[in-house]
Records
---
Amino acid sequence: MSNTPKHFDLGSTLEMPELKDTGLAIRLVPVRTTSRPVQHLKMNRQQLIERVDGRWRSSVQAVQGLPADVVSKPGAVGQWSAKDLVGHLAVWEEESVTALRLIGEGRRPPRYARFGGIDAFNDMKWREFRDRPLADVVRWSQESHRRLLDYLAGVPEELFATETRFRHRLRLDTYGHYPEHTAHILAWRATLPV
């Protein structure tokens, strides 16, 4: 992805037809889209929640304005559609909450080797949700994100202060993960006819 810009800003507000009656307006923030490691500064809970939320919203924004049939058509990344990428991020937000609870209790989350590795796990989960309608995937994504933010709002502050195992897992599953797929969607969008 050497041609991928390091930052992007897709506008100021997200509007999705599926959300028209919810009153949801999403503010966007610039997002780093490189996979290079970033030096993680000391951050408090609110700063990390804002980072998670802002990068998630930018990922959702990447599908803004596209018709449902285009968003649901395979090919955004391999056989996955943009809808599938939104669902994939919801899977990892759910995984994050599960793993973070265990880490917060001083336990280790189970390894994905039991599924055949991360790629096999991703494929298994994709097969579970790929036939769901776009509106269901959007709703699921929003609900998963809300659960994640609610969970983060209630955990002890010391889990956020330094690069703990908790913060490391949070970064891998969320704000370090979203930009990768945002870049995929934006690159795919650039290939669509105008």
---
Amino acid sequence: MKVTDQKSADWKALESLANTFEIEAGIFAEEGAEAKEGSPGATLIQIANIHELGLGVPQRSFIRGWFEENKDRVSELFAKQLDKLGVSRVETVLERLALWVQADIQLRITRRIPPPLADATIKRKKSSVPLVDTGQLKGSILAKVNGKMPPGMKKGEVSPKGSGNSAKKGTPKGRRV
């Protein structure tokens, strides 16, 4: 009975914290404003939107598609990490989760989002991997907790094991977990 009471108190504390923490993932204003390598006049966010939404090219949703496929997994991982570390370390749990989200979205791109590239595109690129020419797009995908990158994480880094509401305008790729 004591354990149940304690867990209940922990979960109540967690509920009060729930609205103060937020994970965002995507391509944010600073990185998105960069010129896309090999595409003069286009920014990275413009190229990302073209592919994410299928504007004149086959749609390859690397952000929305990931969230649609993983919303249950995110909740499960959050609960497991919270049970392991405790409510008092909720920020650490969220930082770990953010790192996993970032790495897994990047992995989604590496695994080749359908549909396959056209033969002419493969010939031009000399690669059959959609969404990857220079790696700039994939490397610009970030995850943040309350608008801040987890400690020690830098643009383009991916944790090998996988372990929004941006203050800046022009961040349509950010998704809240």
---
Amino acid sequence: MRNYWVLKPNSKLAYLLGIKYGDLGLVSYKRKGIAEYRIGLTAKDEDFVSKFRDTVCSLLKKKTTNRIHLDKGYYCCYICSKDLFHYLSLGLEAHKPVIEKFPADFLRGFFDSEGNADQRSKICCLISASNINLELLKYVQHLLKKLGIASQIYPLSSKQFVTIFGRICRAHQAWQLKVTSIKEARKFWKKVGFSIRRKQEPLDSSYAKYEKNLKAFNEERTLTFKLHASIRNRNSLGQFMGGKHAFCKC
């Protein structure tokens, strides 16, 4: 196997690895006696699938000619590459050199696949990601911590049902990673974010307002401090003058 992508890590490959540990599909089969190695993505956001296609085509240095098609309400795109297929089939340890070098890009790909942004108020969003692989979520938590973003992992009920491509299935034991506080979610917004417009818009809406309110609060606080300082200086001067006049009368 040619280790082209291992020798040249970059942000696009890190983003693709993030998708790989989420929604990416790897399928190999024989067609008319010829082996084909297919890398595909199926999602409900067309901009996400388009981003995946452009990323893979850029890595393969080929023109973006693969068609995105709609199937039962989901957008799909498949690209064939034996080398990239084999590289993506490797385990997490083999991918860590790329991930550790570009953690924000890996996290963006992972949260595009597995994450969600739930707007709780005008200035607060709950950012979360769910997966049945607890060790993977712990590694994601470790990468977030490296970027200065705190998070917590909680178990989800194994009795829950999930809908997969329109079919209701019983879920495996799943885990959820949450970035809940305004401060930490704001860091995520600035350092990681989403490529998917549907997920990024709640963050932009919440934290743009938060930044505006914070700026207004800081300006008001600065004016308050200046006013208090002016009053203190005036009182100090009055006390000094009062003491001087008292001395003169004596």
---
Amino acid sequence: MPLLEHSKIRIAIVVSHPIQYWIPLYRELSRHLQVEVLFCHEVTPSEQATAGFGVEFEWDIPLLEGYQFKWIANVAKDPGIHHYRGINTPELSKLLTKENYDIVLVNGWNYLSYHQALFYGRINGLPVLCRGDSQAGITNSKIKKLLKRIIYPIALRQYSGHLYPGERNKEYLLSHGVKPERLFKVAHFVDTDYFAARARQRSAIRAASQIRKDFGIPAAATVFMFVGKFIGKKRPLLFIEAIHMLNRSTEEKTVYGILVGDGPLLPDLQTVSEDNGSTSTIRFAGFQNQSQLPAYYLAADCLVLPSDGSETWGLVVNEAMACGTPAVVSNQAGCAPDMIREGITGYRFDPNDPSGLVRAMSLFLARCDENTANSLSEISASHSVATATSQLLQAISKSVNNY
């Protein structure tokens, strides 16, 4: 069988719903392959709110432009992205054939539709790639661990290849018996060009200055920032407590914390933040959409990601670094080994140590490394859309031509 050139390869990308981070990749990939994205569910603004964002909204960047896509009928009795059976698309059985495509890419295994895509792709003779970001170390019951040890090696072998975004996911896949030759590195990315360009605009620089001014933050103060949903696994309470502890250790309260986001924990966070009365240095910015985030990252001296081990990556770190902002990251978060060069692009800490985050933030306050800016640019470039596209093209070409 002759090797297929990139421009002739037809790929079906099966995705639960339009995800803002992935759209730039679909556009870039469409410059090289015949791409069709199959969306299995249309998320409503109210679903976004119940998914942890805390407010109803639509993304302020175009999600359905620059690539071919198709909506697949979701016949689930209780449709939604909140549970496994919430996305059920038997129509894939007619679509995923050799007449239509040369390869299938599935964006995980946490929905019924994704397993349908694997099943129908395989029985119709198509190679199926899986992109996931699970990591080992998440606490499970003994029964769950035993079941995973038995079932996962069998299930993961059904895919032609796995796209791992970082070291933690690679370790996870290898631990479940996936052969190294079936592993392909495809970096976890954001649209770094978009964030970097916005961060360089004068309007964003002025907006960042205004954010600090509106919050009553002195020019000489250090600002740590939390960006994300106010939910348990993100540990926003740990962030607030660390800010309070840092300020209690000095006479002058020169450390401020800004929380960007919303969610079910907001009332509790507001209560804790007011424990210091009028002297509190905690500020709540509310939910901010994609176009507004660069100014907030510029307003911060450092991002903090205090998440537990269920945070399989932490793309806010990618966004912040694209804007030139370093990060203090929980070593349980999936991005930690790939994004953090200790003392240069940021610091890691053990979230199980109550004072670990405070120590890491203290190290940041005392740091002075002239290599930070260059290192942030290097890390950001290695997790860009262009890099991920190049890596994905290699994985697709090898999988199609070796199948």
